[in-house]
């Protein structure tokens, strides 16, 4: 459950949103998560703010006010408040606990009158599982003589909606692994506001040559992420290509091994 207060000030053309508290937050940690709240105004996503982190609690109290200026009265009905509750993690990506979507058109806002807002926090993970995580089209070319693996990230399709505007800002980060250890990293540009991005970007990885140059101990890890200017970027889906993979990923890798110097492309489903 999340609590807040909304106030519109006509003379200042300002919308004031107070993030008060949350109650009963889930979390894997026995002591509770390290929650904070991210707020953005939809559909333009231009106004983004976040609260401080409150440590080890399922019932954080924030009492933080955020003022958004330049909003005319006639614009209020088109604005939706999007709250995302996250648990801060110093060593990896922050975990999304849940979200609240509240269109202002459903509220009776009057200038100068504060209105309390109380909403259930909805889990996002269930929605992600039901719609799937989309697919990526990847082309690989293995050049044994040069000990190089060329990766062309062509495009992705049917990515899940990462916010209530129905869009995402996807990009792809990829790692070359040797004996299970990440040894090189590359990433594409961000493609704004799309679920079907076209990248057409090529990357060359140098493969360790000793004692013999093969792809047997090499794999490629791809992370498709949703870019966010305010918080850590959220992982949409993952893919690992290599001899130890399964299904289309394993078949594609073996094709590339068997046909050096040929660029071979294939679609792959992203996983959690």
From TrEMBL:
One of its GO terms (cellular component) is exocytic vesicle. InterPro entries: C2_dom, C2_domain_sf, Synaptotagmin. Signal peptide: none annotated. Residues 1-117, 132-268 form the C2 domain. One of its GO terms (biological process) is vesicle fusion. The keyword Repeat applies. It comes from the Eukaryota. Keywords: Repeat. GO terms for molecular function: calcium ion binding; calcium-dependent phospholipid binding; clathrin binding; phosphatidylserine binding; SNARE binding. This is Jg16821 protein.
């Amino acid at each position: 459950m999340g609590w807040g207060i909304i106030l519109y000030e006509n003379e200042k053309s300002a919308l004031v949103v107070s993030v008060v508290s949350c109650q009963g937050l889930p979390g894997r940690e026995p002591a509770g998560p390290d929650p904070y709240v991210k707020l953005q105004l939809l559909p333009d996503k231009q106004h983004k703010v976040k609260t401080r982190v409150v440590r080890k609690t399922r019932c954080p109290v924030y009492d933080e006010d955020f003022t958004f200026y330049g909003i005319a009265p006639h614009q209020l009905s088109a604005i939706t408040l999007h709250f995302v509750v996250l648990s801060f993690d110093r060593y990896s990506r922050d975990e999304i606990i849940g979200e609240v979507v509240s269109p202002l058109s459903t509220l009776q806002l009057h200038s100068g009158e504060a209105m309390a807002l109380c909403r259930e926090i909805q889990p996002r993970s269930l929605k992600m599982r039901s719609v799937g995580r989309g697919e990526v089209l990847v082309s690989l070319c293995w050049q044994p003589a040069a000990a190089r693996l060329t990766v062309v990230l062509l495009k992705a399709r049917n990515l899940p909606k990462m916010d209530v505007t129905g869009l995402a800002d996807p990009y792809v980060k990829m790692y070359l692994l040797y004996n299970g250890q990440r040894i090189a990293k590359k990433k594409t540009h961000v493609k704004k506001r799309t679920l079907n991005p076209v990248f057409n970007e090529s990357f060359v990885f140098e493969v360790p040559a000793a004692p013999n140059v093969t792809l047997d101990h090499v794999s490629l890890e791809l992370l498709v992420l949703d870019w966010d200017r305010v918080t850590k970027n959220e992982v949409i889906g993952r893919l690992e290509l290599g001899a130890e993979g399964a299904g289309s990923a394993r078949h594609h890798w073996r094709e590339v091994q068997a046909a050096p110097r040929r660029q071979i492309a294939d679609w792959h489903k992203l996983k959690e």
